[in-house]
Every structure is written in C-alpha cells, then in structure tokens.
Amino acid sequence: MAQLKITLRRSAAHRIPAQRKIVKELGLGRVSSSVVKPDNAATRGAVLKIAHLVSVEAIED
Asked: Using CA atoms, how far apart are residues 60 and 9, in angstroms rounded to an integer?
C-alpha cells in the first residue's frame, strides 16, 4: 500500500483556524516536521487544503 510523507514547510501560525486544525490533526507540529500517512482520499483531501504549507512525497512499500 502506498503512503505519503508529508512535511510542513511553512508555519501554520496566522492562518485561518480550519487550516491550523488540519495541520494539527495530521500530526504536524513545527516547521520541517514530517509524518507518514496512508495514501487515501481523506489524507489527500486534507493535504489539498493546506498544499501551500506542505510538501508531499509518495513512498512505495
């Protein structure tokens, strides 16, 4: 199953509350923090809403 490595590249401070909530729910804390999440519709939807703050790489198993 494919996975996504999501890295926070820009701060979520001073963003709209919905975007800050998505960053926190993905498990991203500080700038340059990374998480690995399953590649599914829910994760892709969340990433799409904060695409200007993160970078994403596909990880194949």
From this structure: 22
Query: Do the Cβ atoms of 53 and 19 come closer than 8 Å?
Result: yes
Beta strand ranges found along 1-61 (DSSP E): 3-8, 34-38, 54-59
pTM over the 0.90 mark: yes
Per-residue pLDDT reduced to its tens digit, 3-58:
999 999 999 999 999 999 999 999 999 999 999 999 999 999 999 999 999 999 99
46 Cβ partners below 8 Å, 6+ apart? 22, 25, 26
* Architecture of the structural domain at 3-59: 2-Layer Sandwich (3.30)
Nearest Cα to Cα of residue 51 among 15, 14, 38: 15
